[in-house]
Amino acid sequence: MLHQTQLAPGTAELLGDLRPLIEQLGLADSLTAMAGGLGAATPRQISTAEDLKRCLEHYHAKILLPVELPAIQRAFDHAGRNELRELIAFDRQLAGESILQSFASASRRVGQSQLQRLRPLRDQRMLKRYLAAVELGEANGWHTLVYGLTLAVYSLPLRQGLIGYAHQTTRGFIQSAARSLALSETDSQKMLEEILTPIPAAVESLLPLVTLPK
């Protein structure tokens, strides 16, 4: 059920910062771009509800679960251990992920915007040093890394943060496509629940696999 994807109180505002990413990706057609090259099963255009669902399933299978959620986890781990050098190295590594290139610019804009909003937290040394690296061009400030860093800064639950990220991005894509596809609110909600059903279990299986060694 959808209620399983809800975050602990206090995280909703943080997840709201993902909305500009959906907007900057160019609505439904950009989901096709994100899923581009993921296989013949990915529709080239989203013209039906079934097309949207297939693209979202590919996005989850090829980007969200294997790349984005582990990136959030890793940033969270580095932040908790004050490992700035390792975080910057991972930031640069992500720049080479070809599957992320279709929305790299939007990811950087959203991540850097969030970093600027966090600038007043002057007692957060890790945050300030990462921001400085981004401003010097030594790091990109990907939205996933900033999100993981922010979870750590505010001591928010990682597991719920990962599930919430999946919920927010998926819901954003569905909402962006709903009007052009004439999806009712009921249909949109049903699609969201169906696609998110495997996410809690996927996150549970993911966490032990991507936790950095102590």
Q: What would your notes on this structure say?
A:
The protein is an all-alpha fold and 214 residues long. Helix content is 67%, strand content 0%. Helix 4 packs antiparallel against helix 5 (84-94) and helix 9 packs across helix 11. The chain is elongated, with a radius of gyration of 17 Å. It starts with 11 loop residues before the first helix and ends with a helix.
Can you give keywords for this protein?
single chain, 214 residues, 11 helices, 67% helix
Number of strands: 0
Q: What order do the helices and strands follow?
A: HHHHHHHHHHH
Rg from Cα:
17 Å
Mean pLDDT: 79
Tell me the structural class.
mainly alpha
Largest sheet: none
Shape: elongated
Report low-confidence residues grouped into runs of 5 or more: 1-12, 24-30, 37-42
Report, as a whole number of angstroms, the end-to-end distance: 35 Å
